[in-house]
Amino acid sequence: MTALSLIMLAGTPVLAQADRPAATPAPQTAAAATSAEPGLRGATAIVNGAIITGTDIDQRLAIVLAANDSELAPAEQAQLRNQIQSNLIDEMLQIQEANAADVAVSDAEVEATYNRVSQQNFNMPSDRLDAYLATIGSSPQSMKQQIRGELSWQRLLRRNIAPFINVSADEVQERLDRLQADKGTEEYRLGEIFLSANSENSAQVRERALQIAQQLQQGGSFVAYARQYSEASSAAVGGDLGWVRLGALPPELATSASQMQTGQLLGPIELAGGYSLMYLIDKRQVLVADPRDAVLSLKQISISFPAGAKQQDATARASRFAEGVQDLGGCDRAEQGAAALGAQIVSNEGVRVRDLPAPLQEAMLSLPIGGVSPPFGSIEEGVRVLMVCGRSDPAASSGPSAEQLMAQIEDERVNKRAQTYLRDLRRDAIIEYN
User: Fold this and answer.
1) Are residues 12 and 116 in the same domain?
2) Smaller CB count within 10 Å for the chain: N or C?
3) Closest among 150, 341, 122, 335 to 221, alpha carbons compared
């Protein structure tokens, strides 16, 4: 095996939980805007007397740009600013409605959610997230305001919509029966960015969707763009629709999804009322165990190269290593064999196959106990292999319970009515643009 056969792996998943997009600072009144402190830009919109400033938009834009691998052209940034302003208006309306309905979100709730987001989405404590946001031109206050908007909206939906959603036992049973009938068929975990359109602005919205698709293809974070652009209720969770079957999707989306491969982006897809961009996060078979849910016991065997190592020398050593690991004689003798090769060895327990980089998943599933993966790595990072020392295969899924299905149907109906609710808030608001 030559160095050309080494698998070069990128450590970052295509759809990681990207940096949570920032939010606006606490609303100001129009009067306060006239006495803004130095450096604070003036109002770009006034929503029922509360202002949105250029600084608010800049701080939200900074998060999106930080999550984008490529630099956006000035025209694209201008379009993004317009969309962010629209999002901030909706956010302001949601907070105002929660205040008027006496279900306002407390500062303590916002702070607790911010701390949780810092750990789950950024993998850092909140004080480090504060510093990170400052370095990219955003702020903790901006992100906390978006959190306040999301929590306010969720609370409004629970109070004003959810209690009036009724799902019968017959509906749940019908879906359970359909699920059993679909056993073995594929279901899809999809991400969606939905942009609403009408006959007057359809061409402009489609052009905007094409620009978003291009930015995503160039390395933009789908989660970040979904949170900023999507007008569907799934925007709050980065556009994630969860696991769905084709029959539950609009025909236009179902046809497209059936042809997609994991990691693929499609769109814009024209729907009644707008355009969708779809991202296939994953797919599996209904009520069938997924081999990628197998849990492995692994030994990682690796070699490193000294600083300044020549390509020729590294290639020769990598080839000897690749040959030597095939003769280790199984997991019981791995330590002794690794020492003879001048390699290091680390044990890893409880590793799910689906958590491994995509290029390795199929290779690991095909290996017997004691089998060794193809080498992967580089001169800078070192070269390593994985040896399978144990495997726990997943059990077949029994599917969701009746209670889970009822909750799913309720969520679908709440989300549909939420779009109408927000549309009514926009219609009744007094919004002035500068």
Assistant:
1) yes
2) C
3) 122
